[in-house]
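ok trying again, last paste got cut off:
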Amino acid sequence: MAIRIIAQRRVLKIGKNPGVKKFVMRPELYTSLTEKKVFSEAATHSGISAGVIKAAWDAAGEVIRTWATEGHSVPLPGLGTMRFSVRSKAVAELEDVKTSLISTRRIVFTPSVDVKDELKNTSIQITCLDEDGNVLKRVTSGDSGDIEDNENGLTPSPSPTGEGSGNSGGGNSGGGNGDEEPNEN
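nice, full thing came through this time. structure:
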């Protein structure tokens, strides 16, 4: 299994060098799977009927939404955790604190170590295309497999010597621009 990427040569229209041709990468579009297909596959893997799995998933979804809106970080078994948050501007004075400082509401998903490892260990296949969509070459990844973590920034893979070279905690939680800070509650 591999993540498929398209690198297509295009004329840049914005940025530092408008008019210059460069290869721009994007994920190859996949089709969206239906819930029915997901429940059917889960039934095949577990031996539990798709109807029972759907009923259990619907109930879990209700519980997850309720707990997340109460401010909990909720485990999504086998996937990671999710919680709700906000992005807002920071102010110095108490009297300036108001709801208008909130610029967006956010859903923060933190993948489990198993999900991160799966992504890190999945190869990336790049198909290079010219402007007309003709295949120029195909490349398979040889990158380090570093994972961007919304919570902690970049999480590098261990060095070839086996020692960790990365960020084991802390970091920023989404980053803001200018005076916008990722105040989360």
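cool. Helices lie at 35-46, 50-69, 113-120. DSSP finds three helices and ten strands in the chain.
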